[in-house]
């Protein structure tokens, strides 16, 4: 109210609330009542103002005792006696959620939507004895968007703008400036309150637009209802479907006299005008679920609970009900009931406070249904991973003093399934025994995998989680890989012939590092703002967005099965894509074990799909699939050329290729000879020579050539060749029989052309695909073995004179390959000149094979293009979108 100050000057005092009326249910939780009590403003719980139509005198006396100047009312002023309405000096003003005189009544905004009005708003009027008929003080309006609902209009406009407008209205009243414009009866309507069930039923004789308007008008309370398969159901989240064709579907349901189609985006319903309405959520009884999951069986783990755990479940139920303000059963979906990110934070904190269990936000996102969440919490209490136990046809064996268990089926949409192709035997290179028969994918299987990946990218949980949450999943996967590293290294060893100790350190160790590196990048992928010329007199702003490409195809080689998968897939997923990956036909097992770990880490279905098979069928199907937008390949140059043609002819896929190499290692006379021998041997024999950056040719300065060769042969003879699982073994078998045959043919070429075979060159006389480390000297530049890649432990040595360094570099560059290179010298000038002039994607100086997850890796010329590893690898799996604004 207004009054005089101590100085005697009349000026308005601050307006103050004298009292707040609250319902019984609002006493402890309503923000208005909590704020009032904190401000020492009286709060009254008045159950009723009248009895049998007569104002209760004790209530009226209580009201008069607080001496108010103005009543500020929500809508429905007719429930307040006129004695109360007229008592204050300034009488009463009332908020009503419609543009009066249209849509008078308690369900005004619902009727605004039902009638398809393109404008909504609110009125603040002077209360009288009519039904919302008093003079208008002020009005505000907003546009109704096609998919606005009762909730969105209240949350975006009616609540926030209504509070501001009411404050403005009170100020106008206090200043004596408040207008009193009589309401016209032109266009006036009074609409019934939608509190009766028969008024909430969907009329399917209406066209799509009217049905959509009705459903959104009752969203999220009380909900428009119909029957589905004979059961009463309330529908929420309505949108008009674009197009006259239904998507592919799995389940049809009966909605009264029509059919509904359950699909990835919800429940699609055909209307009388042959259009479609789509709804996102369905409530049956107290259970709210995503419409896309209607009729599906729960895939969560079935646990047996102890009595103590049953008490925990009831605690969780109370937490959920406290947050959601609804009854909760085992199928209640947290987010379908309207929960948001702050509710997730509250949930995590309440679980921690009540049960002592520390969860991450992502645990809630990954288990949004109550029974799934219960399993997550109970397993966390037990100290067990909350991921569901995935089922597959297991290969079980006792190897390397451990029990191995791994899948042998395709991995599509989060499940291991049999393929349509002929199974292929995978063979242990050590003893040529069959490890198991692996299912293979046909083009139809690849199509299923691609569609699962597309759905996960566009509609699934993967598309909804934040970049930081995506990073948390990648970190969790890396932790699981480390937990299972001995098992992974053993599988890699028996499947590819990798020496176990090397597999543990490099094949698996670097894979883990790769996932952790790219996990850290997930929330650091960002665009930029760009200053551009303004369209004067207006101004402009341009910014870029870095976006994932979509479904990516990956085809990886057999030399580092898990590491090559990780180099490509970690960057791919960090960027937000989904993937269909074909491991090498001869070494698929670690990829399948990896797939199992993605489930245990909590990756949503469809994000990772692994389809073993042949390159000619499975690989080709990936290359040609029109829904795949990016292809990453590591392998031979010949196959890379074929892949590039397929990608161009299909849908012009983005391609990155890491192909063949003939990497030169140049050793100058000033190099430390002992170190040069060690580095030279490692550059060729590392991983049995099955190494894409292996030094395919050593150029040794003539002054040290003979001594270098002598020492190298001497050290090569000491290499321990044998069972890759033995800890003393340094050199294992070649990966597969065809490759061993190719190496023997390579040696024959060298001998035939006159190169001097001074060591090795033969298959060992024992079971398994063992090949002796081999050394050739006196190799000239025109020889086959000087030009072509062996991809095996074959050292090819040529002399050079340092008198003409440019000539030596020209010889090193005289190849169509440009993957890697190396130089050993104490002269920094020579080293830097070599690094500048050599045509290779990687240059090693006084080292070799020193790759790192943070350093970009990729070749030039016919060794391909694009990068694995480092920040640059992310660009292979991102697209840049430019956005320009004028203002």
TrEMBL record:
Q: Identify the enzyme class.
A: oxidoreductase
Molecular functions (GO terms): formyltetrahydrofolate dehydrogenase activity; oxidoreductase activity, acting on the aldehyde or oxo group of donors, NAD or NADP as acceptor
Per its record, the protein catalyses: (6R)-10-formyltetrahydrofolate + NADP(+) + H2O = (6S)-5,6,7,8-tetrahydrofolate + CO2 + NADPH + H(+)
Please indicate which superkingdom the organism of origin belongs to: Eukaryota
Q: Name one Pfam family in it.
A: Formyl_trans_N
Q: What's the EC number here?
A: 1.5.1.6
Locate the coiled-coil region(s) and give their ranges: none
List positions binding NADP(+).
582-585, 635-636, 742, 789-791
**One of the GO biological process terms:** 10-formyltetrahydrofolate catabolic process
List of catalytic residues = 96 (proton donor), 658 (proton acceptor), 658, 692 (proton donor)
Where in this chain does the record put each Carrier domain?
307-381
Q: Which GO terms describe its cellular component?
A: cytoplasm
Q: Where is this site: Essential for catalytic activity?
A: 132
Q: Please list the residues that bind (6R)-10-formyltetrahydrofolate.
A: 78-80, 132
User: What is the name of the protein in this document?
Assistant: formyltetrahydrofolate dehydrogenase
From which source organism is this entry? Heterotrigona itama
């Amino acid at each position: 109210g207004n009054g005089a100050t101590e100085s005697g000057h009349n000026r308005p005092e601050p307006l103050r609330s004298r009292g707040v009326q609250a319902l019984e249910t609002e006493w402890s939780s309503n923000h208005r009542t909590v704020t009032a009590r904190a401000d020492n403003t009286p709060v009254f719980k008045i159950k009723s103002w009248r009895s049998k139509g007569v104002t209760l005198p004790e209530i009226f006396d209580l009201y008069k005792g607080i001496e108010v100047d103005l009543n500020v009312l929500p809508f429905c002023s007719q429930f307040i006696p006129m004695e109360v309405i007229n008592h204050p000096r300034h009488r009463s003003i009332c908020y009503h959620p419609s543009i009066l005189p249209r849509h008078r009544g308690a369900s005004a905004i619902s009727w605004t939507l039902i009638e398809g009005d393109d404008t909504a708003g609110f009125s603040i009027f002077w209360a009288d004895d009519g039904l919302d008929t008093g003079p208008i003080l002020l009005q505000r309006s907003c546009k109704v968007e096609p998919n606005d609902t009762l909730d969105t209009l209240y949350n975006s406009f009616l609540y926030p703008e209504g509070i501001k407008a009411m404050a403005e209205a009170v100020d106008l009243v206090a200043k004596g400036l408040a207008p009193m414009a009589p309401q016209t009866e032109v266009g006036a309507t009074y609409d019934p309150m939608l509190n009766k069930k028969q008024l909430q039923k969907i009329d399917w004789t209406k066209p799509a637009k009217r049905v959509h308007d009705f459903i959104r008008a009752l969203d999220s309370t009380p909900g428009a209802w119909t029957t589905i398969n004979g059961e009463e159901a309330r529908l929420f989240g309505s949108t008009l479907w674009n197009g006259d064709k239904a998507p592919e579907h799995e389940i049809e349901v009966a909605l009264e006299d029509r059919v509904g189609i359950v699909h990835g985006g919800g429940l699609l319903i055909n209307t009388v005008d042959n259009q479609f309405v789509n709804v996102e959520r369905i409530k049956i009884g107290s259970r709210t679920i995503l419409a896309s999951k209607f009729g599906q069986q729960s895939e969560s783990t079935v646990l047996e609970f102890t009595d103590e755990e049953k008490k925990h479940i009831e605690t969780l139920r109370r937490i959920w009900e406290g947050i959601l303000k609804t009854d909760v059963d085992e199928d209640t979906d947290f987010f379908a009931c309207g929960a948001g990110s702050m509710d997730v934070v509250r949930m995590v904190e309440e679980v921690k406070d009540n049960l002592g269990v520390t969860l991450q936000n992502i645990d809630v996102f990954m288990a949004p249904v109550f029974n799934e969440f219960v399993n997550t919490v109970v397993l966390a209490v037990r100290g067990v991973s909350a991921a569901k136990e995935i089922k597959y046809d297991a290969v079980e064996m006792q190897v390397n003093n451990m029990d191995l268990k791994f899948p042998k089926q395709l991995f599509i949409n989060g499940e291991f399934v049999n393929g349509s192709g002929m199974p292929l035997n995978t063979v242990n290179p050590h003893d040529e025994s069959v490890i198991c028969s692996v299912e293979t994918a046909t083009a139809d299987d690849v199509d299923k995998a691609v569609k699962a990946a597309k759905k996960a990218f566009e509609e699934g949980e993967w598309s909804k989680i934040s970049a930081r949450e995506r990073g948390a999943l990648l970190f969790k996967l890396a932790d699981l890989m480390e937990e299972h590293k001995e098992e992974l290294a053993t599988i890699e060893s028996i499947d590819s012939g990798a020496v176990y100790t090397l597999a543990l350190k490099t094949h698996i160790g670097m894979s883990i590092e790769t996932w952790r590196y790219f996990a850290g990048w997930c929330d650091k992928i960002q665009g930029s703002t760009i200053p551009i010329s303004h369209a004067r007199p207006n101004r402009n702003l341009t910014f870029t967005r870095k976006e994932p490409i979509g479904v990516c195809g990956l085809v990886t080689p057999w030399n580092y099965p898990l590491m090559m998968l990780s180099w490509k897939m970690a960057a791919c997923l960090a960027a937000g894509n989904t993937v269909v990956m074909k491991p090498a036909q001869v070494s698929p097992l670690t990829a399948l074990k990896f797939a199992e770990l993605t489930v245990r880490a909590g990756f949503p279905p469809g994000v990772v799909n692994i389809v073993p098979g042949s390159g000619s069928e499975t690989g080709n199907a990936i290359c040609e699939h029109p829904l795949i937008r990016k292809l990453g390949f590591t392998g031979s140059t010949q196959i890379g050329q074929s892949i590039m043609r397929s990608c161009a002819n299909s849908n012009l896929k983005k391609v990155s290729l890491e192909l063949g190499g003939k990497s030169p290692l140049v050793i100058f006379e000033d190099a430390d000879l002992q170190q040069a021998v060690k580095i030279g041997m490692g550059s060729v024999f590392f991983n049995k020579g099955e190494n894409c950056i292996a030094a395919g040719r050593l150029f040794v300065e003539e002054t040290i050539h003979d001594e270098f060769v002598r020492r190298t042969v001497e050290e090569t003879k000491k290499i321990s060749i044998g069972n890759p699982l033995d800890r003393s073994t340094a050199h294992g078998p070649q990966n597969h029989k065809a490759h061993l045959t190719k190496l023997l043919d390579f040696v024959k070429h060298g001998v035939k052309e006159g190169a001097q075979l001074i060591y090795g060159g033969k298959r060992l006389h024992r079971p398994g695909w063992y090949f002796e480390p081999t050394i050739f000297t006196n190799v000239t530049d025109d020889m086959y073995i000087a030009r072509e890649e062996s991809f095996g432990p074959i050292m090819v040595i040529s002399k050079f004179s340092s008198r003409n360094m440019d000539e030596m570099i020209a010889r090193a560059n005289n190849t169509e390959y440009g993957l890697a290179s190396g130089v050993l010298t104490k002269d920094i000038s020579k080293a830097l000149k070599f690094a500048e002039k050599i045509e290779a994607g990687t240059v090693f100086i006084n080292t070799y094979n020193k790759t790192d997850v943070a350093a970009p890796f990729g070749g030039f010329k016919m060794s391909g293009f694009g990068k694995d590893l480092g920040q640059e690898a992310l660009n292979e799996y991102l697209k840049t979108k430019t956005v320009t604004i004028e203002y």
